[in-house]
Write a structure and sequence with these properties.
- By secondary structure, the chain is α/β, with parallel strands linked by helices.
- It has one domain: Ribonucleoside hydrolase-like (Inosine-uridine Nucleoside N-ribohydrolase, Chain A, Alpha-Beta Complex), CATH 3.90.245.
- It has helices spanning 14-24, 44-57, 81-84, 106-116, 131-139, 169-173, 175-182, 193-196, 203-210, 215-235, 245-252, 299-310; strands spanning 4-10, 30-37, 65-67, 122-126, 147-153, 188-191, 200-201, 240-241, 257-262, 264-266, 277-279, 291-297.
- The strands form three sheets. The protein has an eight-stranded mixed sheet, sandwiched between helices. A two-stranded antiparallel ribbon has the order 7-8. Strands 10-11 form a two-stranded antiparallel sheet.
- Helix 1 links the parallel strand 1 and strand 2.
- The two termini are 22 Å apart.
- It binds beta-D-ribofuranose and calcium ion.
- The site of calcium ion (CA) has 7 residues, from loops.
Length: 313
C-alpha cells in the first residue's frame, strides 16, 4: 500500500511533538506533505517554532512548516501553559530551529494542497484547535469534498472535559471552528479523551523511550516526564496521556483502535458547556452519523509501535 499523504495541523505541545515524530518515523505508511501551526497550547509564534524544533530533532529540516491562524475564529485565544510549560515544549533543552518557516499562510497551504492533489488523496490530521481547518473550509468550500479523511484529536464523551467540566481543550478553544468542521460532511475520525486517557506513559514506558539511547528517545522521555506531572496531580493517573500520537498511530495501525460511527455535535452557545462534544454514543437520537468516535485502544500495542518507530529516528 502506498503511504497516506497527510497534513498535520498542530499546536506543539509535547504530545503533538511525539505525534509528529511518529509520523516522520513511519515513511512506509505516512507521507507528510507539510505541517501547519495553529495557536492553542501556546501562542502561534511558539507553536510555529516548536514544530520546526521537532522536525530538526527528527533530522528532517526539509519538512515544510507554515504558520496559520493566531486566534480562534470568534473568540480570544485560551492557552495551556499550565500543562505544557512556558515554551509549550518544556522538558528537554532543544536548540532553536534554523530551518525556515514557510512564507505562505498555513490556511493557504491547506487549500492549495487539497486543490492540487487528486481528490480523496490528502488526509488532514488536526492535533489542536480546529481554527485552520475551519478557516480553509470557509474560504474554499470546494476543498471539503476533496479531503480523504480528517483524523483529529479532540473532544470526549465518558471523560467529559479537561479544560472545563464539560469540554476538552482543543474543541473548547475554538468551538465555532469545531462545529463547522463536524458539520462539514467530511469523513471524520475522532480521538477523544476517552481513548487518549488510556494511552498513559507509565514509568516502564518512559524507561523504554530512554533506553532507546538516542537523542529522540531521551527527548521524548524528558517531554513526557514534564507533561505527566499535570495529569498525575489532576487525575492521579499513571503518567502522561499521549493524546495526539493516537492520531498518527491510527494512520499506521488502525487495528489498534475501536470505536463507533455516531453523530457528534458541538455546543457553542451555553457558557456552562461551551465546547462540549455532544456525542450520541448510545444512538439515542436519529441525528445522522458524522464521525467515527474512537473509544478504546490496545495501549500495549500502541506503546510497542511508538517505541519501535521512535527508535528508527
Ligand atoms: C489536547 O490539548 C492539548 O493540550 C494537547 O496537545 C492535546 O491536543 C488534549 O486535550
Ligand atoms: Ca495538541
Amino acid at each position: 500500500m502506498s503511504p497516506r499523504r497527510i497534513i498535520i495541523d498542530t499546536d506543539p505541545g509535547q504530545d503533538d511533538a511525539v505525534a509528529i515524530l511518529l509520523a516522520l518515523a513511519s515513511p512506509d505508511e505516512i507521507e507528510l506533505l507539510g505541517i501547519t501551526a495553529v495557536a492553542g497550547n501556546v501562542p502561534l509564534e511558539l507553536t510555529a517554532k516548536n514544530a520546526r524544533i521537532v522536525c530538526e530533532l527528527a533530522g528532517r529540516p526539509d519538512v515544510k512548516v507554515f504558520a496559520g491562524c493566531e486566534a480562534p475564529l470568534a473568540r480570544p485565544l485560551v492557552t495551556a501553559e499550565h500543562v505544557h510549560g512556558k515554551t509549550g515544549l518544556d522538558g528537554p533543552v532543544l536548540p532553536d530551529p534554523t530551518m525556515p518557516l514557510q512564507e505562505r499562510h498555513g490556511v493557504d497551504f491547506i487549500i492549495d494542497t487539497l486543490r492540487a492533489e487528486p481528490p480523496g488523496s490528502v488526509t488532514l490530521c488536526p492535533l489542536g484547535p480546529l481554527t485552520n481547518i475551519a478557516a480553509a473550509f470557509r474560504r474554499a468550500p470546494d476543498v471539503i469534498e476533496r479531503v480523504a479523511q480528517i483524523v483529529l484529536m479532540g473532544g470526549a464523551y465518558f471523560e467529559v472535559g479537561n479544560i472545563t467540566p464539560a469540554a476538552e481543550f482543543n474543541i473548547y478553544v475554538d468551538p465555532e471552528a469545531a462545529a463547522e468542521v463536524f458539520a462539514s460532511g467530511a469523513d471524520i475520525v475522532v480521538m477523544p479523551l476517552d481513548v487518549t486517557h488510556k494511552a498513559l506513559v507509565t514509568r516502564a514506558r518512559n524507561d523504554a523511550f530512554r533506553a532507546l539511547g538516542t537523542r529522540v528517545g531521551e527527548a521524548v522521555a524528558q517531554m513526557t516526564d514534564f507533561f505527566e506531572r499535570f495529569d498525575r496531580e489532576k487525575y492521579g493517573s499513571d503518567g502522561a496521556p499521549l493524546h495526539d500520537p493516537c492520531v498518527t498511530a491510527y494512520l499506521v495501525r488502525p487495528d489498534l483502535f475501536t470505536g463507533r460511527r455516531i453523530n457528534v455535535e458541538i455546543e457553542t452557545g451555553s457558557d456552562l458547556t461551551r465546547g462540549m462534544t455532544v456525542a450520541d454514543w448510545w444512538r439515542v437520537t436519529d441525528r445522522p452519523e458524522n464521525a467515527l468516535f474512537i473509544g478504546d485502544v490496545d495501549a500495549d500495542g500502541f506503546f510497542a509501535l511508538l517505541t519501535d518507530r521512535l527508535g528508527r529516528l
